[in-house]
Design goal:
With 503 residues, the protein is of the alpha+beta class. It is built from 16 helices and 17 strands. A five-stranded antiparallel beta sheet has the order 3-2-1-17-16. The two termini are 33 Å apart.
Length: 503
């Protein structure tokens, strides 16, 4: 079946006017008149402002945000039931909302959005730990704050575990990077908290280039010799308990990929003259840390016959248990993520050592495909048999009774990775430099999308949805809710539209 893009069809139908015929009505939407575009832009500005100010004035707690709220704001959730004195750090929580507010400022120049983003940054800073990063929630109730080693409170005792899990600390740092730049590096509290957080993240990196999922103390380099990955002689078939898996070398949940992206963003921002001496000095350290993490990926590639990666490694560089449904195994999701990270590091550095592991890993993934074209999440060490769990969390080779909360089969994206590998590998050094400077493609926003977002907002500036809250009990799907993820998506869409050239 032939498919045509609507803009092509509209160009075709322009010729109808020569014969006195009208073009189809959808062409007016694709190519609105300047007057229609101006009117829609005005409505978009009003909708954007109303939505952002509702979030700032009625939803925020000390500038911070959660994931979901009942429409009357009496019930609140992050990754669990939350109180009225909490914000959440994991996306789509506080940093993600702050990013959307900065997008609104950049698209409109309205300093009200920048002021809102500043409030969000300051609220986030109140959740920064003495260890340098963030845990999942920011607590503002005095009784709760006394239990936690919040840096701004001058606390030396209390809970102090920084987490990189689920893009928590890394999202916070990327937001502070963007806020610092938007404020022209003039907000001393934001600038200082950013430098403290980046410096702590650098100290938390292990000598081999890995990071843990979380940390409380910085590693002693002498206690963690650098080794290449190897197969263990044996491994327990029954989950041995948590064994503080958080502190091991971690690829799970995109921990390493998010850290590398954050370090590279810090390196770029820190190289700007206005960034100041301390951030300038950290920039090169951040770039080196990103490349050192790539060196860890090279070390962590398992030997033949399974030259891919695990979710988690112990300090002997053997694949290790994490949670009770995450066994020592070769893992296809993390392996594909590792390949994408290696490609990015090659693009950023031009060092071909980051390309070297890729062909072997791609061939391994190809021969590990399931009959339906997917990949198993886990492959048994040595045999490469797909591994699954029963609902009672017992290891099995059968996928007939798996838990439903976790994807035990995933999509195989190895061919698209292979194409990108082939494309980058043939570029010259000069072509790589040009490629680095190419701005990412901006998704085009259509008038229909903008109109849909405008129509979905109520008079107070809320985007209300059905489905009920996830964690409150008894669960009631009829409860109307406000989702931060929807707010972020709509604000970013309206901002992209307003930033695009007028007709």
């Amino acid at each position: 079946m032939l498919r045509f893009h609507s803009s092509f069809l509209c160009s075709f139908f322009v010729g109808f006017a020569l014969f006195g015929l009208a073009a189809p009505s959808f062409c007016a939407e694709v190519n609105p008149s300047p007057a229609d575009d101006a009117a829609l832009r005005q409505k978009a500005r009003e909708t954007l402002h109303r939505g952002a100010m509702f979030f700032r004035r009625e939803v925020a707690v000390e500038g911070t945000y959660l994931w979901e709220y009942s429409a009357d704001l009496t019930r609140r959730e992050g990754e669990g039931v939350a109180t009225a004195t909490q914000g959440w750090v994991q996306p789509p929580g506080t940093p993600a909302v702050g990013m959307a507010l900065i997008s609104a400022y950049e698209a409109t120049g309205d300093v009200e959005y920048l002021d809102a983003a500043r409030e969000t940054a300051h609220g986030l800073i109140r959740g920064q730990l003495l260890s340098g990063g963030w845990h999942y929630a920011v607590n503002f109730a005095p009784a709760e704050r006394r239990k936690i080693a919040y840096r701004i409170d001058g606390k030396k005792t209390g809970r102090n575990i920084t987490t990189f899990d689920d893009d928590t600390t890394t999202a916070a740092l990327r937001f502070l990077l963007r806020a610092d730049k938007a404020l022209k590096f003039q907000d001393a509290k934001i600038h200082e908290a950013l430098i403290y957080g980046l410096a702590a993240t650098l100290k938390a990196q292990y000598p081999n280039g890995a990071w843990p999922q979380g940390y409380e103390q910085f590693p002693d380099a002498q206690a963690f010799p650098v080794k290449a990955a190897a197969f263990p002689a044996t491994w327990p078939r029954v989950w041995p308990g948590s064994q503080q898996y958080w502190f091991r070398y971690t690829l799970n949940d995109n921990v390493l990929a998010n850290l590398i992206s954050t370090m590279l963003e810090a390196a770029k921002l820190g190289s700007e003259a206005q960034a100041g001496a301390e951030l300038n000095a950290l920039a090169q350290q951040c770039r080196a840390a990103a490349q050192k993490a790539g060196d860890f990926l090279i070390l962590a590639q398992m030997p033949e016959p399974q030259p891919a990666w695990a979710q988690q490694y112990d300090f002997e560089m053997h694949p290790a248990w994490a949670r009770k449904f995450e066994p020592p195994a070769i893992t296809s999701a993390e392996s594909q993520g590792a390949l994408k990270v290696l490609l990015r590091l090659y693009l950023e550095s031009g060092e071909r050592k980051y390309l070297a592991p890729i062909p072997r890993a791609l061939e391994y993934l190809r021969r590990s495909r399931l009959p339906d074209g997917q990949l198993a999440r886990f492959y048994e060490l040595g045999t490469n048999k797909p591994l699954y769990f029963t609902r009672d969390y017992l290891l099995t080779y059968s996928d007939g009774d798996v838990p439903t909360h976790y994807a035990f089969k995933i999509a195989d994206n190895s061919e698209s990775i292979a194409r990108e590998y082939a494309r980058l590998a043939k570029l010259t050094g000069d072509e790589l430099k040009i490629e680095r400077g190419v701005a990412p493609k901006i998704q085009i926003v259509t008038p229909a999308q903008v109109q849909s977002v405008i129509a979905a907002q109520d008079a107070r500036g809320r985007w209300i949805e059905g489905g009920g809250l996830r964690f409150h009990r008894p669960k009631d799907p009829s409860v109307p809710i406000i989702r931060s993820a929807t707010f972020i998506r709509n604000v970013e869409l309206l901002s992209r539209y307003l930033a695009s050239p007028a007709k």
